[in-house]
Amino acid sequence: MAENFLGNYKSCVSARATDKEILKGAQDGGIVTQLFAYALETGIIDGAIVAGPSDEPWKPRPMVAMTKDDLLKSRGTRYNLCPSVSFIKEATRSYGLDKVGIVGVPCQVQAVRKGQLYPAGLRDVPDAIALVVGIFCMENFTYQSIQQLVEDHAGVKLESVKKMEIGKGKFTVKTERGAEIALPLKVTHKYNQPGDHVCLDYVAEWADVSTGSVGSPDGWSTVFVRTKKGEDVWAKAMAAGCFETKPIEQVKPGLELVTKLATEKITKNRKTLEERASFGVGKGLRNPYL
Amino acid sequence: MSKVVEISPTTRHEGHSKLVLKVDDAGIVERGDWLSITPVRGVEKLAIGKTMEQVPKIASRVCGICPIAHTLAGIEAMEASIKCWYPDDARRLRVILQCANRAHSIALHNILILPDFYIPGTDTKINPFTPQEPVRSVAKRIQRIREISQTIGQIAGGEAIHPSNPRVGGMYRNVSDHAKLKMYDLAKEGLTLAHEQMDFMIAVIRNMQKRDWTEVGGKQIPIPKTLGYHDQGYMATDPVYGTTSHSENPTWSYERFKETRPWDWYMGEAEVNLADPSYPIGGTSPVGTKVNPQMEACTGIPLYDGQPVEVGPRARLVTFKNFDEKGTFGQHIARQLEYTDSFYAMLSAIDDLNPHGKVLADHIPQGDGSMGWAANEAPRGTDVHLAKVKDGRVQWYSMLVPTTWNFATCSRALTGAPWQIAEMVVRAYDPCVSCATHMIVIDEEKRIVAQKLIQ
Q: What ipTM was reported for this prediction?
């Protein structure tokens, strides 16, 4: 039997939000924003830790969103690190949340789950985590890397960028004035932050619901519903008409591409881990999975 | 001919302490010594050379029951030394934190003292852990009050135990609008429960006061009407919060304070010649045990106006609210009265709090080495921290904690009580012993550290 690189899941669909306002600023199908907006509205969560705006262009800053307006400010992907997990305790403290939603890339989802299992320094936090949404992640960048890629390689000022996308083998930068610069993904590789090379999770296997653009047509997102809790929230959101969906089998490129990329990432990184084990003199570099 | 009996350790309070009692033939205490035997923590020495930000956090670690009082007293001692004002909203958050700590501590103390008391109208002592009514619903109410207080403390202070939010110059962050509402709703619920719990406790305490005897170790022990009376005077600085040397109107005075040594206060070497194996939890120390309170005690004896004083709920109520009941039962009643007071004060602070207000001072001076002190009204009494800060570093630090004040006073209050219920007198002070231990320095210049104790 082939190895499972997509984690356990209960169902998988291609979906997009029905709310036009959310879709307008969304990276793809607006899944995370719509799901959190619904969960906030119905009291499934009373706040969500998301990547909000900061003083610098395209630099995300963790923010506790407590209204739909807050969520709208955080729409779209900014391809650099956002230390959202650092807010998880504060959300239950000075923000006074009882039911916290959090969105993150696979490594952040792992951290949240680990924190729930071993809540050292996280008194009263594990039970307060109500919904964990994961996003697919092949690699991520530091803010300095994104600055260099956009300002030096693509040659545009970060302030004038309207959207950034990674897909179809390209890193694409679209500006306010309509220019579109596509860099081959190969250029970006040396800017990846180092943790990307040892991560063995592409599709946020530990989230309640995980989502990403890969596998679905433009403007749509692939959604894995993974846990009982995720299934419950997703079913309610569907019943409330939050999303339109297509069966994943009927869309192109479909799960085949997701599986291919997941396999690529995990196989490549396993190799890196093996190399690291014998790197250096006398002792290897640490394998975070051991 | 008086006999010596030793109860070691004393139980149902925080920390490690013991009682050495000289009793007459009828078993009435002629002279009582209650002393701390918790090993010295050394926080005051650890503090030297650390930054003024670190020290209050270290001081907080001296104990887990009132870490909030130690944090706030520590921080305000720093602020008094560097002469820093902090914004009003930070003050409100601190008051909320203070009241949350007090409410949870009273609730915890209820659990500790209830086994001394009877269910009114019966000869059955209260076991707070029994599943039977009416005790079970009281226990649940106590736990809910604690839960509410801890949650409010967690929101205002970042953490219910060892709060992370307070800092020199104010607080690290204000709370959200949502959090303010949550605290308010919780405090409202807490207030109702506190009223119910106060009424219950007062009924139980009054019932005990009317009784002629209590059962200890299978014997009926008479309860004197003057149980726990003393003439040592009271000291309190504020009904709720506290005062500092930087306040406009400081209500404590360093000049009136003096510290004496345990060997000037406690009795000397003696041998136990009265023992009772039926005394609860393993009996008293066996006959022949050598005791030496002068050398075993590890606290200084703080004096205010030349004598030990009582601090705590009754001291606050006597000073600020004309409370006039003396003795052990008066002390218990005073503590229950503070239940609702703490929730009212908390609600008013939450009401006044502006979640968008500034909570950190614009300018935080780094200090010129002058001495500053802060007195915080901790649940069990006045907690005074003294500090000298220069260029952001602590040069000298001293903690005069509540139970240190009470040790000597309570020792005097034991006189006249049957020895079997001496522990009841001790528990009425809600002792919190671990923070009360000190490195005793005899000569600062020659660096002589209590050599008498080491001999």
A: 0.85
